Write the structure tokens for this entry.
Amino acid sequence: MRMLSPYQLSVVPALFGDFDRVMESFADFEGFQPSRDVQETEDHFIVSFDMPGVKRENIKVEVKGQRLTVASERQRASSTASEKFERTFTLPPSVDESKIEVNYEDGVLSLLLPKMQAAKPRTLEIQSGRSFFQKLLGDTKTN
């Protein structure tokens, strides 16, 4: 049988004390932070959240102005306590809020944020004759 030295005996409680403090900090943690991924293409943004164990009916996605809020709640497996998550993002001005789509499948929440159609450039015709200011002042004479 191997004997522990007095030095080893004094280190063991300190190690378990640190472990206990870490475990207590996890026990006090009420929320969860799902990992997210953001991708951008020419036409849209795709934002995905990994939300395993969250029921579809416990997810809320809301757009108000340029702010997008994603909130959810899930039951902890080991107790009756629940974990809550809420995250608010400021949308870029290029996102068309009226066309946002949301999908939840296999524990992944995906948001499709389409970009507004950019105005196509147009060529302007250069006129001669009556000037803009003459039209504005109501001068009906032609040059």
